[in-house]
Write a structure and sequence with these properties.
Low-confidence stretches of chain A: none
Oligomer: homotetramer
Helix content of chain A: 25-40%
Structural class of chain A: alpha/beta
Number of strands of chain A: 6
Mean pLDDT of chain A: 98
Radius of gyration of chain A: 18 Å
Largest interface: A-B, 48 and 49 residues
Shape of chain A: globular
Number of helices of chain A: 6
């Protein structure tokens, strides 16, 4: 089958500090492996990524290489910690840089480079905020062209207030998270296969022309 | 093909007051019709819907009939105005009532009743808030089992501050809205066909068992 | 001193069903009592409140009476459960109805009826979503004229996934929630006194005139 | 009076590129000047700020100097563009770094360094998302100790879809934005004076002790 998943780990921590989000990503990658899906994990703080909204900000910007990896994948999963109730600055930076992909539409269909890809999200936090991170991240990815299958998010959070994070809290034994990581991995794999076998025929350029005719 | 789309119009206005959200829904319904997809529009304020999170709150609750309609549809589109930057209370009420569907999982696969359905969102507001409404609504629908294809949202909003709404502002001539309503309708139709021809094989009950084995 | 706090309990549950949000509200009301602040709790589902955005929707709409109570209070606290990661439909309904207060500005200063009031928020959910509820609710209340002191929110949520709610989980013994309810009550009381002794002198009507001079 | 406002401009653009958010910040700074409030504007992309959640990440991290400036100010205003419907990665980075201030509580009262400060938010985007940015940002700042007076946000956004930004669109002539920037500046100034003359007496350490007594 040859499906490939790419995980973008948007932890704030610089290597070699241990990332809780990575620990949950590893659970998903193991499950993908059982289904024959290859995984690649990129830790964004390993790279020098400039702020901006184009695909290449020049100079020593290392986004272009990562963008290439993303375009090669069938399944894209953003992994983010929660800070102040929302996704990390690093996750937001990734989305901002993906804004540049709108400019790389297919010359015939106008479909953006992420059309045909499937997306999910993995989230860890010591408390509250997972719905907010998942909702915004998955929605943004649909705008960029991704398809979201059912139950495409997986998160672990502790109860209200500061507390231990995923690893320390033994989140790897948390039933809800273990259920949803399985739902996510299986649904993403199913949908990625389906999209590989069934190319989206929608021609955005043609629809743009139709829209122009009825607009001022 | 026989695809059916259901629009749940979550305007705050009681009939016969004119709904701006309905005006944009009508654009989408026309486009569905051109693609051979049948549309039904339900205005929630036409019915007596109780607050709650089960599928039947008893008494004169009219949700059960609407829930049946939703289960018959292939494509579900929530139409919501924006109030205070978020979706209407009526739209939130619809989601809360759909919480009851989790209890109606398939006895074999555990898949919830909205598995196999495709979802989109239509939003109107005199200003700001569409991303918030779309993100939360589409994400909630994925939790309930829906698939979200690319560009599955369509909205019209005016610029900052109070101002005319969709109808009065001539939103039907707004290029961005006219483009995205076409993207949405075409992507929803394509994905609905795909799901009709390719049943999701994921067995949630089996995955629950696997998860239990590795959880405390 | 004569300060009065009003709690609007936006549980989805109809009386006499027990409300978890009410249980946490009661903690706050006890603390207010120790500081000499009088509390009133209104359970919205006790009343027939129409959907809409004006202060009186006519017929058997019971909002006008509640709106009067709100205008008499010094401290306004929205109590909301979390459903699908966001505030309840009932809480959203309350905000939508408060939209009508913009029309009741002071004839001289233009200040809306909630200017001079202090606001907080109390949230319970079995998991995740408190930041989202608090952020939107407190922000909306600043738009309506309220002042938000530091640490004006108090919530209890359990860890990821379905689980027991505040009462059943023994949330009344949860340290973080017990700390923040104290921070909230003390800060709200302090600020309410301050605003009672120091009327906001800002004249919105005058500022509107200034703005018009430099706008097109 | 000697009040000082600090604006943290969280544009994604590196100098010398022109920032739309800065253009709206300048409107606010002029109005502060008329009221005798001194303004300082810091463009975050002028500095090397590491990702993280402590007040000093070491090495060539330039956050510590900015943090000192923030602690000297009476009024803190986050200026952010909107990207993908939410605040910029740079704005999120600023909040994440302010997380470190929780560790710098007053030894007697426990109040965090931002207690006693007043906060507002300025937002520009070519469309939709201002409510989301304002709600999360102001709420986060209340957690850090800031007080939010009424109408403490000011934004400019265009109508649905891509389009010109604040400067190009002539946003400086937009009535709603010109009204709200005046509301914001006047309310922030009033509240900053009030807080300067009336120190918050709440002792968080004492409340922590009370909470511990009733918690498990």
């Amino acid at each position: 089958m040859g499906l490939k998943a790419i995980f973008l780990n948007c932890t704030l921590k610089y290597p070699p500090e241990v990332s809780n989000t990575r620990a949950l990503i590893d659970r998903a990658a193991e499950l993908f492996s059982e289904l024959g899906v290859e995984s690649e994990v990129i830790r964004m703080t390993d790279y020098n990524i400039k702020f901006g909204t184009s695909s290449d900000m020049g100079g020593d910007d290392e986004w272009p290489g990562i963008y290439e990896e993303i375009k090669q994948a069938d399944i894209i999963i953003i992994g983010s910690p929660i800070w102040f109730g929302v996704r990390s600055s690093v996750a937001q930076l990734v989305l901002e840089r993906l804004d540049g992909s709108y400019a790389d539409g297919d010359p015939v269909t106008g479909q953006y480079p992420l059309y045909g890809k499937v997306a999910g999200v993995i989230i860890t936090g010591n408390e509250d905020g997972a719905h907010n991170v998942a909702a915004n991240t998955l929605f943004n990815l649909t705008h960029l062209g991704c398809t979201i299958p059912p139950n495409a998010d997986c998160y672990w959070v502790g109860d209200a207030g500061p507390g231990p994070s995923y690893i320390e809290a033994g989140g790897d034994k948390h039933l809800y998270t273990n259920r949803t990581v399985r739902y996510m991995v299986n649904n993403l794999t199913w949908m990625a296969k389906l999209l590989k076998d069934n190319k989206n025929p929608v021609n955005l350029k043609k629809l743009d022309e139709d829209a122009e005719k009825v607009s001022r």
